[in-house]
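Q: I'm writing up a methods section and want to include an example of the input and output format. Could you take the sequence below and give the corresponding predicted structure tokens, formatted cleanly so I can copy it straight into the document?
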Amino acid sequence: MDSATDEEVFYRGHPSWRSILGFYVKGVLLSILAGTIAGIVTRLSGRQVEVGWVIPAVALVFAIMLVSGLLIRIQTTYAITSRRLTIGFGFFSRELHEARLERIQNIDLHQSLVERILQIGTVTFDTAGEAGSDFSFRGVADPRWIVRTVDAAIHDRRIGESVRTVRTNSPDFAARTGGPVRP
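A: Here is the clean output for your methods example:
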């Protein structure tokens, strides 16, 4: 719980590595292509393929793809708190999107067949008054858990508001605080 704001964090995370599996497959293919090109170039320039050039070419392209994939994932951060949902983008410059829980109207879960196999999905939140805005947690692991967590947070938020309303409208509250009972 964040003591400065009395906001409890239920989830903070990034898209799953499985959500960019296609990117990694392309990286492996690109690495093989780089090795093939290095082999062809060394064969044309000499009498045989120079493994000393092929292996570093494959390793370099593969390492670049691994680091790129990691950066793609960690530049997006999702959070569910007791008050809001947030999506943050970027490293050096940062973009932050927020939706207060009381503005969430619908929660949709989308999983293709491949995403179901990989246990990832996209959770989309429809918010009040923001037609056309796309507020989605894309590529999250265990998207059903995300849906249940947001639903529970919304429910707890509504229960908390109704409890506060009942407490402030009671004659006992008025007697303790000296304030009038709200109509």
